[in-house]
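in:
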C-alpha cells in the first residue's frame, strides 16, 4: 500500500533533515568530487574546480540518484559514481551558463569567469564535461552514456530558445516552459533515468522515474524564478531581480503580461526583452509582487509538484521513495 508520505503533501523540512538517510552516500559522492579536483593536477585548474565543486550547492541530483538506488538496492559504488557524474555535469553547465548570461555571481560568490577570466571559465567547463563523461564511462553501461549524451544535446538546444513576447502570452509561456524543460528538468530527469538503468527498473517504473524527475525539475525551476522576484537575497544567496536586470521573460513576468492591466513602461521594456537598471528592477519587483503574477507562477510550480508526486505512486513502496516526496515539497516551498 502506498504510504501517505507520497500521496499527501507533508510539511516542509530542512534539506539536511530530508537527506539524513543518505548521509553516507553523500559523503562518498563528495569524496569522488574531491578526487576530480586533485586529479586535475594543475594548481590553477585545481583552484577553479575547488570553487565549482566545493560543496555549496544543494546536490539535488546526486541525492535523487542515491535515494532511487537505495530504494532498488543498487550497488552503492555504482550509484555514487553516477551521482557524482550528474553533479559534475550540472556544474559544467553552470560555469558555461554564467558566461552566456554574463552573471557575475553564483551562490553568493563570484562566478568563474568573473573571478578568473572567460577563457579560464570556458576551459574549466570543458574539463568538467570531460570529467562527467569519465565518471559514467566507468560504469560500463553504454545506455547510460547515451542518456548523458542525449541530455547534453537537449540542454544545449535549450540555450537557443529565447522566450519573447509578441502580444501572445500563451506563446511566450510555451517558449518559457520549453526552455526550462531542456535547461533544468532534463538534467534532473537524467539522474532518474540513469539510476533506473542501474536498478534494472521495469519499463513502467523507468517511465515513472523519468516523469518524476522531469516534473520535479520543472517545479524547481519555476520556484527559482519566483524567488528571483519574491525572495530575499540573504536567504537565496543571490541578488533578487537578476533575471529582470538581464531582461529575461520568466513565468512571473509572463503571468503579469497575461493579466488585464495595461503594463507600465518598465514592464513593457521587459516584454521587449530589454534589461533593466537597478531602479527599474526595483520598480518591476514591486509591480510584480503587488499583482497576482507571483501567486499564479507558484500555482504552476505546484501543478508540476503534483505531477511529480503522482509519478511516485507508480513506484514500489519504500522509505526512500517517501523521501523523494519530501524533496518535491522542498522544491516548491523552499526560500533558497
Amino acid at each position: 500500500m502506498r504510504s501517505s508520505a507520497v500521496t499527501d503533501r507533508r510539511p516542509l523540512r530542512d534539506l539536511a533533515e530530508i537527506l539524513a538517510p543518505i548521509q553516507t552516500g553523500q559523503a562518498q559522492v563528495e569524496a569522488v568530487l574531491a578526487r576530480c579536483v586533485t586529479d586535475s593536477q594543475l594548481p590553477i585548474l585545481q583552484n577553479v574546480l575547488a570553487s565549482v565543486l566545493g560543496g555549496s550547492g544543494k546536490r539535488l541530483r546526486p541525492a535523487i540518484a542515491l535515494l532511487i538506488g537505495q530504494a532498488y538496492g543498487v550497488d552503492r559504488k555504482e550509484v555514487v559514481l553516477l551521482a557524482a557524474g550528474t553533479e559534475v555535469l550540472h556544474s559544467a553547465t553552470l560555469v558555461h551558463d554564467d558566461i552566456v548570461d554574463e552573471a557575475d555571481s553564483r551562490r553568493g560568490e563570484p562566478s568563474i569567469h568573473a573571478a578568473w577570466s572567460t577563457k579560464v571559465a570556458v576551459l574549466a567547463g570543458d574539463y568538467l564535461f570531460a570529467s562527467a563523461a569519465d565518471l559514467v564511462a566507468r560504469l560500463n553501461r553504454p545506455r547510460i552514456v547515451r542518456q548523458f549524451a542525449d541530455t547534453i544535446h537537449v540542454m544545449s538546444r535549450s540555450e537557443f530558445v529565447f522566450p519573447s513576447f509578441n502580444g501572445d502570452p500563451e506563446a511566450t509561456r510555451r517558449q518559457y516552459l520549453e526552455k526550462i524543460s531542456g535547461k533544468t528538468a532534463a538534467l534532473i530527469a537524467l539522474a532518474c533515468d540513469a539510476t533506473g538503468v542501474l536498478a534494472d527498473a521495469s519499463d513502467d517504473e523507468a517511465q515513472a522515474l523519468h516523469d518524476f524527475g522531469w516534473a520535479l525539475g520543472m517545479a524547481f525551476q519555476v520556484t527559482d524564478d519566483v524567488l528571483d522576484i519574491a525572495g530575499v537575497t540573504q536567504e537565496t544567496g543571490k541578488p533578487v531581480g537578476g533575471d529582470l536586470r538581464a531582461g529575461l521573460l520568466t513565468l512571473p513576468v509572463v503571468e503579469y503580461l497575461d493579466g488585464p492591466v495595461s503594463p507600465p513602461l518598465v514592464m513593457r521594456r521587459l516584454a521587449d526583452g530589454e534589461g533593466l537598471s537597478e531602479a527599474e528592477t526595483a520598480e518591476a519587483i514591486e509591480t510584480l509582487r503587488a499583482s497576482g503574477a507571483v501567486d499564479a507562477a507558484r500555482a504552476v510550480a505546484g501543478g508540476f509538484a503534483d505531477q511529480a508526486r503522482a509519478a511516485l505512486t507508480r513506484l514500489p513502496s519504500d522509505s526512500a521513495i517517501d523521501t523523494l516526496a519530501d524533496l518535491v515539497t522542498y522544491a516548491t516551498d523552499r526560500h533558497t
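note: DSSP finds 18 helices and two strands in the chain.
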